[in-house]
Amino acid sequence: MRPSAILESALYVTDLDAAEVFYGEVMGLERIAKVPGRHVFFRCGQGVLLLFNAEATRQPPRPDATLPVPPHGTCGQGHLCFAATAEEVELWKTRLEGKGIAIEADFEWPSPEKDMRGGRSIYFRDPSGNSLEIAEPKLWGL
Protein backbone atom coordinates (compact mmCIF):
# COMPACT_ATOMS: atom_id res chain seq x y z
CA MET A 1 0.00 0.00 0.00
CA ARG A 2 0.98 3.60 -0.51
CA PRO A 3 -0.79 6.96 -0.14
CA SER A 4 -2.46 8.20 -3.33
CA ALA A 5 -1.58 11.87 -2.83
CA ILE A 6 -0.50 14.50 -0.35
CA LEU A 7 -3.69 15.91 1.12
CA GLU A 8 -2.20 18.66 3.29
CA SER A 9 1.04 20.60 3.36
CA ALA A 10 1.99 22.78 6.32
CA LEU A 11 4.12 25.86 6.73
CA TYR A 12 4.80 27.63 9.99
CA VAL A 13 4.53 31.41 9.94
CA THR A 14 5.53 34.22 12.27
CA ASP A 15 2.57 36.50 11.45
CA LEU A 16 -0.76 34.82 10.65
CA ASP A 17 -2.40 38.06 9.52
CA ALA A 18 0.38 38.82 7.02
CA ALA A 19 0.30 35.18 5.85
CA GLU A 20 -3.46 35.34 5.34
CA VAL A 21 -3.13 38.44 3.17
CA PHE A 22 -0.19 37.02 1.20
CA TYR A 23 -1.68 33.61 0.45
CA GLY A 24 -5.20 34.99 -0.08
CA GLU A 25 -4.51 38.15 -2.07
CA VAL A 26 -1.11 37.57 -3.69
CA MET A 27 -1.34 33.82 -4.30
CA GLY A 28 -5.11 33.90 -4.88
CA LEU A 29 -5.91 30.92 -2.64
CA GLU A 30 -9.35 30.42 -1.09
CA ARG A 31 -9.39 30.55 2.71
CA ILE A 32 -11.36 27.63 4.12
CA ALA A 33 -10.69 27.82 7.89
CA LYS A 34 -9.20 30.13 10.47
CA VAL A 35 -8.60 30.15 14.20
CA PRO A 36 -7.11 33.54 15.14
CA GLY A 37 -3.68 33.21 16.70
CA ARG A 38 -3.39 29.52 15.76
CA HIS A 39 -3.92 28.80 12.06
CA VAL A 40 -5.35 29.74 8.68
CA PHE A 41 -6.04 27.11 6.01
CA PHE A 42 -6.35 27.53 2.24
CA ARG A 43 -7.55 25.33 -0.60
CA CYS A 44 -4.93 24.78 -3.29
CA GLY A 45 -6.03 22.58 -6.18
CA GLN A 46 -6.93 19.15 -4.81
CA GLY A 47 -5.06 19.79 -1.55
CA VAL A 48 -4.98 22.09 1.43
CA LEU A 49 -2.24 24.47 2.57
CA LEU A 50 -2.10 24.70 6.37
CA LEU A 51 -0.43 27.79 7.85
CA PHE A 52 0.27 27.55 11.57
CA ASN A 53 1.60 29.68 14.37
CA ALA A 54 4.20 27.12 15.52
CA GLU A 55 4.01 28.11 19.19
CA ALA A 56 0.25 27.59 19.28
CA THR A 57 0.52 24.13 17.72
CA ARG A 58 3.10 22.96 20.25
CA GLN A 59 0.49 23.09 23.00
CA PRO A 60 -1.17 19.73 23.80
CA PRO A 61 -4.92 19.59 23.19
CA ARG A 62 -7.14 20.56 26.09
CA PRO A 63 -8.83 17.63 27.85
CA ASP A 64 -12.19 18.86 26.53
CA ALA A 65 -10.93 19.29 22.92
CA THR A 66 -13.29 18.05 20.23
CA LEU A 67 -10.37 17.19 17.95
CA PRO A 68 -7.39 15.76 19.84
CA VAL A 69 -4.70 16.71 17.31
CA PRO A 70 -1.28 15.99 18.85
CA PRO A 71 1.22 18.83 19.30
CA HIS A 72 3.40 19.59 16.28
CA GLY A 73 5.36 22.49 14.86
CA THR A 74 8.80 23.47 13.79
CA CYS A 75 11.19 26.39 13.88
CA GLY A 76 12.70 28.11 10.91
CA GLN A 77 11.82 28.55 7.30
CA GLY A 78 10.20 25.81 5.23
CA HIS A 79 9.71 25.20 1.52
CA LEU A 80 6.67 24.64 -0.65
CA CYS A 81 6.36 24.36 -4.43
CA PHE A 82 3.25 25.27 -6.42
CA ALA A 83 2.62 23.66 -9.82
CA ALA A 84 2.20 25.75 -12.98
CA THR A 85 2.59 25.44 -16.73
CA ALA A 86 5.53 27.14 -18.44
CA GLU A 87 3.23 30.00 -19.48
CA GLU A 88 1.85 30.33 -15.96
CA VAL A 89 5.35 30.45 -14.45
CA GLU A 90 6.05 33.55 -16.54
CA LEU A 91 2.72 35.10 -15.56
CA TRP A 92 3.44 34.39 -11.88
CA LYS A 93 6.86 36.03 -12.18
CA THR A 94 5.26 39.16 -13.65
CA ARG A 95 2.52 39.18 -10.99
CA LEU A 96 4.91 38.72 -8.07
CA GLU A 97 7.37 41.36 -9.29
CA GLY A 98 4.43 43.72 -9.85
CA LYS A 99 3.56 43.32 -6.16
CA GLY A 100 7.15 44.08 -5.12
CA ILE A 101 8.06 40.48 -4.34
CA ALA A 102 11.66 39.66 -5.24
CA ILE A 103 12.35 36.60 -7.38
CA GLU A 104 15.39 34.94 -5.76
CA ALA A 105 16.02 32.46 -8.58
CA ASP A 106 14.62 31.79 -12.04
CA PHE A 107 16.09 28.90 -14.00
CA GLU A 108 15.55 25.86 -16.19
CA TRP A 109 16.33 22.49 -14.63
CA PRO A 110 18.69 20.28 -16.64
CA SER A 111 17.15 17.54 -18.70
CA PRO A 112 17.78 14.70 -18.27
CA GLU A 113 19.46 14.89 -14.85
CA LYS A 114 18.95 11.75 -12.77
CA ASP A 115 15.23 11.82 -11.97
CA MET A 116 14.77 15.38 -13.22
CA ARG A 117 13.06 15.98 -16.54
CA GLY A 118 13.63 19.67 -17.16
CA GLY A 119 11.26 22.53 -16.52
CA ARG A 120 11.36 26.05 -15.14
CA SER A 121 11.27 27.14 -11.49
CA ILE A 122 11.01 30.52 -9.84
CA TYR A 123 11.74 31.02 -6.14
CA PHE A 124 10.54 33.76 -3.78
CA ARG A 125 9.69 34.25 -0.08
CA ASP A 126 6.49 34.67 1.88
CA PRO A 127 6.28 37.30 4.67
CA SER A 128 7.67 34.75 7.20
CA GLY A 129 10.68 33.93 5.02
CA ASN A 130 9.43 30.54 3.83
CA SER A 131 10.95 29.59 0.49
CA LEU A 132 8.24 29.29 -2.15
CA GLU A 133 8.66 27.90 -5.63
CA ILE A 134 6.45 27.80 -8.68
CA ALA A 135 7.55 25.09 -11.11
CA GLU A 136 6.45 22.97 -14.00
CA PRO A 137 5.29 19.51 -12.85
CA LYS A 138 7.36 17.88 -15.59
CA LEU A 139 10.31 18.60 -13.32
CA TRP A 140 9.29 15.41 -11.48
CA GLY A 141 7.89 13.60 -14.50
CA LEU A 142 4.30 14.57 -13.63
Automatic annotation (TrEMBL):
InterPro entries, sorted: Glyas_Bleomycin-R_OHBP_Dase (IPR029068), Glyas_Fos-R_dOase_dom (IPR004360), GlyoxalaseI/FosfomycinResist (IPR050383), VOC_core (IPR037523)
Alphabetically sorted, this entry's keywords are: Dioxygenase, Oxidoreductase
DNA-binding keyword on record: no
- SUPFAM superfamilies per UniProt: Glyoxalase/Bleomycin resistance protein/Dihydroxybiphenyl dioxygenase (SSF54593)
What Pfam family is a match, any one?
A: Glyoxalase
| GO function term, MF aspect, one | dioxygenase activity
Give the VOC domain ranges. Answer: 5-137
Protein name, per record: Catechol 2,3 dioxygenase
Organism from which the protein derives: Aminobacter aminovorans
